[in-house]
Amino acid sequence: MKVLKMLDLNQAVQIPQRHAFGIEASAPKLSSDEASSENCEPPSSPLAFRKQFYPKLSKKDWNSWQWQLSNRITDIGELERFFPLTASEKAAAAESRLPFAVTPYYISLMNRADVRDPLRRCMVPSAEELVISRGEAADPLAESRHEAAPRLIHRYPDRALLLATDFCSAYCRYCTRSRLVGQDEQGSLEEALEYIRVHTEIRDVLVSGGDPLTLADCALERILSALRVIPHVEIIRIGTKVPMVLPQRITASLVKILKRYHPLFISIHTAHPQEITPEAKTALERLAGGGIPLGSQTVLLKGVNDSVAVMKNLMHKLLMARVRPYYLYQCDPVKGTSHFRTSVAAGLEIIANLRGFTSGYAVPTFVVDAPGGGGKIPIQANNICGESEGDLFLMNYEGNIFKYPQVI
Ligand SMILES: *Cc1c(COP(=O)(O)O)cnc(C)c1O
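Above: the input record for the complex with pyridoxal-5'-phosphate. Below: its predicted structure, written as tokens.
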């Protein structure tokens, strides 16, 4: 990498503005007042919601994941039972190509009076998704090209991604696998498992989908046990949004099963602090209590979480629920997602406002999953400002510059 030569820089020079090579990342810090003005709390209690919309339903049924699944709203028009649709949402309802589904529980977390509610934006189609923009593709990460066996993506040397199911309890509008999900294909995983068995370099299998935690206990256990008996598979990971959209699924008996397949890690897809409810926290506590290290994955989404205040709040809430922020993703250029996509600089700015200003544990790695299948590329502002006779000039989180004397 080319390093800028800088002259006459004394230690701790106050510079007026943050900068990074090639990228103007001027990041005016938000004051804590601004930060706290963002309302991130769920609008009403699930109890009030249940009483209003399902008056005859028992608490037990509401808290049953099977009830939540079988009572998913799968027709956009049906949403009008809960809130009036906008013209844009109605237009999308007629033409959307992506599957639509959302659990009653997740609807109860939306502020029904706010057409721009972040969770609504994540789940309810709008006319904007009918717009196809430059560079968008059905399969931007070229996963089909790295499909080593049906439902197995082998992109990195030592780890593979197993698509255990194409079913989700709720479909995010920005889904990176919108080309595959919700088609109800029940293909066999046997070929994928056989590929892993003979490829001894695979030491890490990521079970994703669709959402693997929507599988019945016995179906999930079949997959986990088949992986666990493969001697070279060191760790198993599950990618899921279930604790956010269907926390009732995290039962004691599920955790008992998961615990049998350690070392097992879980990455939780989360978008907004409004998702971190008492129900979600209970689910996460249960998983963590089962000795499962929990990480998070968040897609940077315009109008949902593209502010320092919201992102910081989300990261803090995750840590308190024992989830270590793992990845912040630049939104993939999936067809019809331009309304969700921010600039990469917006993500850099959020990270720059977290690093140093809050716990290092609260700072995820910001990555672009390279279009064309290059894998995840971490993006960070360059903190190396220059070099002179072995001295390296480094910028700290406040924008001050410090000299590090290298051994030559
Ligand atoms: C993200 C991903 C992985 C896992 O990547 P890590 O950086 O190890 O978390 C593996 N395979 C594919 C295809 C992926 O997209």
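Notes for the reader.
The chain has a mean pLDDT of 90.
The chain has three domains: 1-19+382-408, 46-127, 144-378.
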